[in-house]
Amino acid sequence: MDSLSLLLDGFATALTPMNLLWAAIGVLLGTAIGVLPGIGPAMAVALLLPLTYGLEPTSAFIMFAGIYFGGMFGGSTTSILLNTPGESFSVVAALEGNPMARKGRGAQALAAAAIGHFIGAIIGVTLLALLGPTIAGLAVNIGAPDFLAIMVLAFIAVTSVMGTSRLRGFASLLIGLTIGLIGLDQMTGQQRLTFGLLHLADGIDVVVVAVGLFAIGEALWVAAHLRRTSGKPIPVGRPWLGAADVRRSWKPWLRGPLIGFPFGAIPAGGAEIPTFLSYVAERKLSKHKDEFGNGAIEGVAGPEATASASAAGTMVSMLTLGLPTTATAAVMLAAFQQYGIQPGPLLFQKESNLVWALIASMFIGSVLLLVLNLPLAPVWAKLLQIPRPYLYAGILFFASVGAYAVGGEPLDLVVLFVIGLIGFAMRRYGLPVLPAIIAVILGPTSEQQMRRALQISDGSLSGLVNTPFSITVYCVVALILVWPLLAKLLPGRKADQEEPQEGERVDA
């Protein structure tokens, strides 16, 4: 009851007219900036940080929370409509959302995403208020072998369900792991695959890779095939979800937060792994498996609810442990320190009013996000009616601006277009893009966790599987790998294992 009364006090603070105004500004700015490829909520918070010196800490963090959730939905908007993720965690939204948009169901995909974000945020923030300290206490006991096992599960799960064959999925994974190796070895400091270029010593930012593979690769692919298509604008379609869409979406909306929140609460976690796993789970559980890859609404609803709940989960380790698990959380940690506040186990005691007002503002921001963006779904979908030469010229421009803004170096643009050519080649030869993205995101971290586990065990391979959690995860990995072979031996299952062919191009 004590937490409930503190939360009610937080609502009393967050619902003042000025704080409501800051929350609305945060949601609007986050959505607008999240739409731009490469300029996500983390950069928005970083850019606005100097402007908040004159604000009260509570008002500043209420606005930052709005930017966080608004940026997540903004990144999903371009993923769904233009196959151009605004953030690394929004790449999954493109898998089914973009095919839906190309069929004239972009408004429905955006509505499913908006409602998914709302439900995921409400459930996630509720769990943050009720279970935050407890989950943080459990998460801090997870060691290097457990982190490695989770990442291996993500690698295997995604490559097993993407593309027209597992071989293509693993080939894409290998491309991503190779890109992830570029830069300095985190353990020894030696340069790897930098070709003597000092600029590559820091590695290639995942935003540049995601924008290059998706946005530039998509634009080049469309340009190469523009004469083969009619070039007619894609219809927007009716603006609301039908009863059939709701029936197919409500279970993924509820399942997503159960996957996203625990992963978000794990230190060094984030929204990438749970959204990938949510997509895999929905593909396995759906009664419409034949639609996956061609616009299954479950593939939008589940991962989007997962991403929003994961965002709430990241606040657990940031507030209770002082450990930021995403770039946005890291910038918010810097903002806390700017005001002389140190997140940690004593934060709930020393800054109780600020913390509970921040949590309450997350509820308010989620409602504002739904109220503002659900009616705007048909408006956003009208982007698809812009003639494609102009549309993709704009995508190239904003993708270049976003990539340049990441590091401020002209060489970033060269790297962006080289990776875009790789994305074009992957589309040409049917390689799914998603395994490459997840490999770039998780490859360096998984390598670091593996080497750390081996150091702890003095080089013994048993150090990789010396915990009950890691053993359980590896059993799941083995089941995923062996299941197709077992399924062929079961009567009536062979047809279910055949993945739909998508023609010459295989979207990811």
TrEMBL record:
Q: Which Pfam families match?
A: TctA
Keywords assigned by UniProt, alphabetized? Membrane, Transmembrane, Transmembrane helix
Keyword Transmembrane part of the UniProt annotation: yes
DUF112 domain location, by residue? Answer: 20-438
Q: Which residues cross the membrane?
A: 20-49, 61-82, 109-131, 138-161, 167-184, 204-224, 316-336, 356-377, 389-407, 413-442, 463-486
Q: Which InterPro entries match?
A: DUF112_TM
KW Transmembrane helix (keyword) present? yes
Question: Superkingdom, according to UniProt?
Answer: Bacteria
Q: What PANTHER family does the entry give?
A: TRICARBOXYLIC TRANSPORT PROTEIN (PTHR35342:SF5)
The protein here is known as Tripartite tricarboxylate transporter permease
Highest classification ranks of the organism:
Bacteria, Bacillati, Actinomycetota, Actinomycetes, Pseudonocardiales
